[in-house]
Structure formats: structure tokens, C-alpha cells
Amino acid sequence: MKIATFNVNNINKRLPNLLAWLKSSKPDVACLQELKAAKSEFPDRALRKAGYSAEWVGQKTWNGVAILARESEIVVTRRRLPGDESDVQSRYIEAAVDGVLVGCVYAPNGNPQPGPKFDYKLAWLKRLNAHAGKLVKSGAPTVIAGDFNIVPTSFDIYPTKSWDKDALVQPESRAAFGNLLKKGWIDALRKQHPDEPMYTFWSYWRNRYERDAGLRIDHLLLSPALSPRLEQAGVDRKVRGKPDPSDHAPAWIVLK
């Protein structure tokens, strides 16, 4: 079973790239983030023609998450992260697919920091940690995949000081990610590639993709019940080099 995550950075604008990647990579499940499309604007028909059913939570102009599945039913269990009924941003969807519970995450960016956007980021991550703890206790085989907007360690970013004030690398953000690992969640990319940076994001600025000046902010976390099934993990880096690309590349795992 191949499960992938891809921040598409506008699903309709990047639809040709997305369809080409789905055709070549053939994930069984794909978690998409930053759809930037209202619910009615989601390209459901094109994806079905490509062989994928979909469930999504859209939001006009911003955010938006989706779960795609190939030859499997998607049984949605949540369309929002619990813990704050006033939060209307479309950042989480969760579903059972072929015996695995899949949570698709688009965490807040948090910039500029300090400030209300960073406060929202930390509060959202606190809610994610609380929910993730309950998922671990349930014993269900679960993967939480998506754009966490967190660079976990200095090894997950190219050598630079230009990001030092960014919300993605702040100690509070990293602590929130670390708390997930303390609950038993396994960082699949890092487990399979302990000695490689495995970047998933390259800014559009200053030829950073061409210079491989990347960051690892897209993650696939496995619950303790699921981690023994991990066989492979990787990043489809070349997708970032296609014409008119997202600034992210897809990351993926293969489970027994």
C-alpha cells in the first residue's frame, strides 16, 4: 500500500502536474494540501477519470485538504480537527481507506512571528497533538500525513541563517513536532533515511530548487500499530522541477 502527501499549491492551477504525478507514481492513497479552491471548484471529475475517488474540504482562495484513493472506498471520519468549534479554516480531513486510518494535515504557517498567526499555529498544533494522542491510544493503524509547516531539526534545512526568524524553525514549533514523536508516532521519512536531508519544499526565490536549498516540512507519521509495516519511504523530487510547479514535492511511503 503506497500512501503519499503532496501540497499542490492550488489544485486547479497545478492539475496537469498532479495528474501526471498520479499516473507515474500510482499512490493508493494521496493526501493533498493547499487546494485553494472552494468545495464546488474541486476537480472531482478529472480525478475520477484518472482513477481516483476523492473526499475534500475546500476553502475559497486559501487552505483546503483532500484524500484521494485508487480502487478503494474512502470512509470519512472527520472533516475538521477537534478542539475549537470556532476554527473554520479547512486544514484537516480524516478517513479510513483499505484498513488504514489516514489523517491529512495542512498546519498553519504561523508567519509573521511573534504575533496572532504564530499563536494560532501553536494552538492548532496543540489540538493536533491532543487528537493524535487519542488515535495512538485507540490502537488503530494510522498515518498522519501532510504539510506540517515545521522543520523538525537543523538537519532538515539547507545550511543557512536566512530562515532563523521564520515560524517553521522556531523552538515552539519544533517542540510541537517532538511531542508527537514522544507519543509514539514514527517519522517515516527519517526512519528510512536517517542520513539524508530528504527535502520536500524549495522556495520559488533565488533558484533555491536548482541549488537544492530545501526544507523538509512535509511528513508522514505512523502510529505504533502501523510502523512495523513500513517498507519504503521517499520524495519525488523531480516533480518540483516540472514547468509551473508547486513549491513542494510529493513524499510517500510503502506499507506491507
TrEMBL record:
The record marks H248 as: Interaction with DNA substrate. Its cofactor is Mg(2+); Mn(2+). Keywords: Hydrolase, Magnesium, Manganese, Metal-binding. Mg(2+) binds at N7, E34, D147, N149, D247, H248. The active site is at Y106, D147, H248. GO terms for molecular function: double-stranded DNA 3'-5' DNA exonuclease activity; metal ion binding. PROSITE patterns: AP_NUCLEASE_F1_4. Residues 4-248 form the Endonuclease/exonuclease/phosphatase domain. The record marks D218 as: Important for catalytic activity. Probably binds two magnesium or manganese ions per subunit. InterPro entries: AP_endonuc_1, Endo/exonu/phosph_ase_sf, Endo/exonuclease/phosphatase, ExoIII-like. GO terms for biological process: DNA repair. The record marks N149 as: Transition state stabilizer. NCBIfam families: exoDNase_III, xth. Belongs to the DNA repair enzymes AP/ExoA family. This is Exodeoxyribonuclease III.
